[in-house]
Design a protein that fits this description.
This protein is an alpha+beta fold. It is 39% helix and 12% strand. The chain contains 12 helices and 8 strands. The strands form 3 sheets. It has a 4-stranded mixed sheet, sandwiched between helices. Strands 1-2 form a two-stranded antiparallel sheet. 28% of the residues are buried.
């Protein structure tokens, strides 16, 4: 009979000791294996083509990054500056405009406020109409956001073209009222009549003096042909010659009914302007003649005291008759007149500019001239100029 024997205590102890001896050997073997494998990987890592970039190389990578960042920031700053430039350029008032420039109408603005804003002067409304025909046709109406042309400082109105004498009778012409204008003066300028102008523009006779600068009137031109009745001269002859200075008198000439004021500075200004222009045009200068100056004063004072603006006198006298009445025997007599209040720029330069629209001042035949100015605060146009050019 076989019997299972129990292991003895000595066998168990021997078996335990053998396991204890194998454990450290295995651990050291694994450690050695890991060291060898790690060394191989490290060698391959450091010597291979795909070796990693250590800190020495990594310092170059952030350098471009840092450089590119300020470059982009600088570009953004430049772009912002360029964006702001058009806003500054679009400022309504250029610092030194040398030509007309565009301006955007603001809320609450109208033509007269724009004239004051840009200091356009007495001709401001007319200049705005000239540069902006649509504003003219709309009767001067403007609206916020509308862009209009503003005249540059010193811009002058073009010289008005005289109405042709052969223009068909009753031809309708649009006219913009200028400073110093009146219905009577406009009627003379276009050889029309006051009644015809009032009727054409539906203006009541009692409102004839209420026209405004910049207002557009329709004028029936060439309705009348001046044909004054020859009446006796308005002033007595004066045989005292004086080739150096214009006449100045305290006495009111025949035909004048008021105490008027003269202005020697205006007379001298016109005399100098006329002769300067003639010399520039290769024409001989004119000599100042006292008799012609007295004849001119007769008519200037007549217009000032009787508040009218016509070539013939209040008594129907002609320039030739007034010259003859002063004892001047002439083969040719030419006359120009101008009326403009001094508070609206009515000085010698204004009169000269108005006359330069024609050919009288540059006539090559005349040799002498007479100039006069008379002012009356009670007259319609304030200051009245007369210039008479003649040839003996």
């Amino acid at each position: 009979m076989t019997m299972n024997s129990e292991p003895s205590a000595s066998d168990t102890i021997a078996s335990y000791r053998k396991r204890q001896q194998r454990g450290p050997v295995i651990i050291w073997a694994i450690a050695a294996l890991l060291v060898v494998v790690g060394a191989i990987i490290l060698i391959v890592w450091l010597t291979g083509d795909n070796k990693p970039k250590i800190s020495l190389f990594a310092t170059k990578t952030p350098t471009p990054t840092l450089t590119s960042t300020p470059t982009q920031t600088a570009t953004a700053t430049a772009t912002a500056t360029i964006t702001l430039t058009p806003s500054q350029t679009s400022t309504p008032v250029p610092p030194t405009p040398s030509a007309p420039f565009y301006y955007e109408v603001q809320e609450g603005e109208f033509l007269y406020s724009i004239v004051e804003k840009f200091s356009l002067g007495d001709d401001g409304i007319l200049l705005l109409y000239l540069l902006n025909p649509t504003v003219e046709t709309s009767g001067g109406s403007i609206y916020p956001g509308q862009k209009i042309l503003i005249p540059n400082p010193g811009m002058d109105l073009p010289t008005a073209t005289p109405v042709p004498v052969d223009l068909p009778q009753g031809t309708l012409i649009e006219y913009i009222v200028r400073p110093g204008d009146s219905i009577a003066a406009i009627a003379v300028k276009f050889r029309s009549t006051e009644d015809a102008i009032l009727e054409e523009n539906e203006i009541a006779p009692e409102d004839a003096n209420k026209i405004q600068v910049g207002q557009i009137l329709v004028i029936p031109a060439n309705l009348v042909t001046p044909a004054p009745t020859r009446l006796p001269p308005t002033a007595p002859a004066d045989s005292t010659p004086s080739p150096t200075a214009p006449a100045t008198t305290d006495a009111t000439p025949t035909g004048s009914t008021c105490a008027y004021e003269e202005n020697e500075a205006y007379v001298e200004q016109i005399f100098e302007l006329v002769n300067t222009e003639r010399v520039t045009q290769d024409l001989p200068p004119l000599a100042l003649n006292e008799k012609l100056s007295k004849a001119a004063l007769v008519h200037a004072s007549d217009m000032a005291c009787n508040s009218f603006f016509k070539e013939e006198g209040s008594d129907g006298s002609t320039p030739e008759e007034r010259v003859e009445a002063q004892g001047y025997i002439a083969s040719l007599v030419l006359q120009e007149i101008h009326a403009q209040p001094p508070e609206y720029g009515g000085d010698g330069q204004a009169a000269f500019d108005a006359w330069m629209g024609g050919t009288t001042l540059l006539n090559p035949i005349v040799t002498e001239v007479g100039i006069a100015y008379a002012y009356s605060a009670d007259s319609a146009l304030g200051g009245y100029f007369t210039i008479i050019l003649a040839a003996p």
